Amino acid sequence: MPKVGMEPIRRRQLIDATITSMGEHGLVDTTVQTISRGAGVSPGIIHHYFGGKDELLAATMRSMLQQLRDDATQRLATADSPRARLEAIVDCNFAPGQFEPRVVAAWLGFWAQAPHNPALARLQRINARRLHSNLLHALRALLPAERAERVAFGLAAMIDGLWLRFALTGAIDGSAARAVALGYLDSELNA
């Protein structure tokens, strides 16, 4: 019989081990074995808490999205202008906890699998809509509606592209990515 109160601890442990495994092995080579080994538990624990690898992967993506959302909410709460809101959104996407190699590798694995996995595709759509909505809300206070829509699309694409560039080459760090994204934003706001 599992110890009382262990479920949240084990779930967090398995989610962290999944992110680490995806960072080290990629999604394809992340298995129940690599995850359980990384968490220091038996493979059966994954099935006990999640039902299987697919459910654990979806829970891991939900957890990562929740961390991103919590960070964005916290940063947006202190933003005192539309420009500051935009900067907060960019900042949370390139924060050290989000823009580290193992986390970026996990996101890349999820993005690659989303077209083939309905649960991951749904989570990706939610994330994309949330980013677009947050950007558009702030941009509408600064630009005409049609232009705000175009800049929101462009800035979201810039954020995604910088993530992809880092995932594939490691050629840019979070502060440099932030500077590129804010440079694009400023050029659009000043055009």
From TrEMBL:
MF terms (GO), sorted A to Z: DNA-binding transcription factor activity; transcription cis-regulatory region binding
HTH tetR-type domain ranges (all copies): 8-68
Pathway membership, UniProt: Amine and polyamine biosynthesis; betaine biosynthesis via choline pathway [regulation]
Keyword DNA-binding attached: yes
Gene3D superfamilies: Tetracycline Repressor, domain 2 (1.10.357.10)
Transmembrane segments: none
InterPro entries from the UniProt entry: BetI_C, DNA-bd_HTH_TetR-type_CS, Homeodomain-like_sf, HTH-type_TetR-like_transc_reg, HTH_TetR, Tet_transcr_reg_TetR-rel_C_sf, Tscrpt_rep_BetI
Keyword Transcription regulation: yes
Keyword tags: DNA-binding, Plasmid, Repressor, Transcription, Transcription regulation
Residue ranges of DNA binding: 31-50
GO biological process, alphabetically ordered: glycine betaine biosynthetic process from choline; negative regulation of DNA-templated transcription
NCBIfam families, per database record: betaine_BetI, PRK00767.1
Role of this protein: Repressor involved in choline regulation of the bet genes. Repressor involved in the biosynthesis of the osmoprotectant glycine betaine. It represses transcription of the choline transporter BetT and the genes of BetAB involved in the synthesis of glycine betaine.
Protein name per Swiss-Prot or TrEMBL: HTH-type transcriptional regulator BetI
Gene behind this protein: betI
